[in-house]
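Internal tracking record. Fields below are filled automatically when a chain is submitted to the structure queue. Please do not edit lines marked as system-generated. If the sequence contains nonstandard residues, flag them in the REMARKS field before resubmitting.
Queue: standard
Priority: normal
Entity type: single polypeptide chain
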Amino acid sequence: MPATHTPSVAERFTGPGAWREGLRYGLLGLPLAFVALPLYVLLPNHYARSFGVPLAALGMVLLGTRLFDALLDPWIGRWCDRLFARSHRAVLGAAGAAAAVLALGLWGLLFPLPALRGGSTGLLVWAGALMAVTYAAYSVASVAHQSWGARLGGNEVQRSRVQAWREGLALAGVLIAAVLPTVGGLAMTVGVFAALLAIGWLAWSSALAPPPGVQLLTTRTAASPWREPRFVRLLAVFVVNGTASAVPATLVLFFVQDRLQAPARLEPAFLGLYFLSAALSLPLWLQLVPRLGLARTWLTGMLLAVATFVWTATLGSGDTVPFLIVCALSGIALGTDLALPGALLTGLMDETGERGQREGAYLGWWNFAAKFNLALAAGLALPLLGALGYAPGTRDPEALQTLTLAYALLPCALKLLAAGLLYVLLIRPAAAPAPTIPHKALP
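SYSTEM-GENERATED OUTPUT FOLLOWS
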């Protein structure tokens, strides 16, 4: 009888019934992305407009708490590796506890104590302390979930499919978060988030477990990810590209409300179209991966992002339809940022023999870089705009021009830099022929 082939864990994300496995693993990505929008995009605007918190002070608090959160991620990553070495149930238990803290923290941030709302100082202390706890809980759940997917392994196509399931469902979460606060209010937003978080965790608990890894390396024998040159090069590209995305994410609502002067009812449409376009583009980008490879497909997305987003600099009051077009096209480009960098990282861990033992260490530094980008965007862009004369609600032409430059042109310059680094550091070395060793004649 011919031998039957038993599909590997990663193969089950591309074969028959792949949608079931993808949904079980990836569903937690929906609420985790859902909460990221209120935490990183809506919260600064909410505190500035609803409570009158000065931009400079708010930016410094966001910078401090996000840097604190980012510095925790490498430690959280190593802790998650120890949990995986113990059992998969230990990982699920830690992530479940973090999810509960995360839901409570979001409620406290959006609805601060009434006694604190009269002055900026007490409100900023409350927000800073609660953000530190909430961000830490978010990091535990995120790193554990990402490490689980990275341990599934597979080839380039299979790794990109695993990433796409998680990030595609994450985009669905962002879409809900973009619409729900306007339609249902902040209280309903927190309630829906808590319910989705519970459902996502339950689905994950029934997902396929990664294959058992080798024994966890000890602290003395485990080399730091920073000693792997390929990881450093990939991380450099990821940081510059992430900064290019973090700046407009921080400033988008200010741009829409003051530069475009768009009605409030259109704000969910801008964000929703952007993330919907990214979700719909994922299958198209995945079709390119077998032809171009992960790195060249990512480069294509970067160049498309610049070619479409640069036109934002020409927009002004009332240009809502052109901005919708920009949101759709740049959202398509976003699909590569979501699915491909993580797949490149997973492949690197396979090549270095780290898969199954130290995904958390790598992903901890990876998430540190992502949050460092957001911290810089909030901690530098907001105070700088305030120093240059911009304040929420202004109609001063010079202040609005400063906002436009920061929102539209700075990200494009950073994205071009990231594209150049991707080509020089990753694509060109991979395409170079292997060095030949000259034949030495025998004596």
